[in-house]
Amino acid sequence: MSRLSFLSILTLSLLAGCVTSTLPPLTANNPASGDAREAVSPPARSLLAIDQASKRTSQLITARAEQERQGQSQPQPEQNMQNMPGMKHD
C-alpha cells in the first residue's frame, strides 16, 4: 500500500512540475520557431547520373550484343552427319 501511495505522489508531483513551467520564447534563429528560415543547401546530386563505370559497362554490353548479332547473321556451315566417323547407322 505504501508503494502505491509513493508512486501516485511521485506521478502527481512530476505532472504538477510540468504544468507550472513556462516555455522559453523562441527566437527567429531557433530551428523550432515558425519564423525561422530554411537552411540553404545545395541541390542533391542525381543518383542516376552516368559516371565512367556506367559508360564503360554500357559500351561492353553494346559490344557484346553486336558480336552476338553478327554471329547469328552469319550462316553456320551445315555438318554432314553421314560423313562423321562413328555416326553411320546400318
Describe it for me?
By secondary structure, the protein is mainly α. Helices cover 46% and strands 0% of the residues. The chain is built from 2 helices and no strands. It is elongated.
Radius of gyration: 40 Å
pLDDT < 50 stretches: none
Oligomeric state, counting identical vs distinct chains: single chain
Quickly count the helices.
2
β-sheet strand percentage: under 5%
Distance between the termini: 106 Å
Major sheet summary line: none
Instruction: Write down the secondary-structure element order.
Output: HH
SS-based class: mainly alpha
What key phrases describe this protein's structure?
90 residues, mainly alpha, 46% helix, elongated
Quick gist of this model?
This protein is mainly α and 90 residues long. The protein has helices spanning 2-20, 52-73.
Please give the structural blueprint.
Elements: H1 2-20, H2 52-73
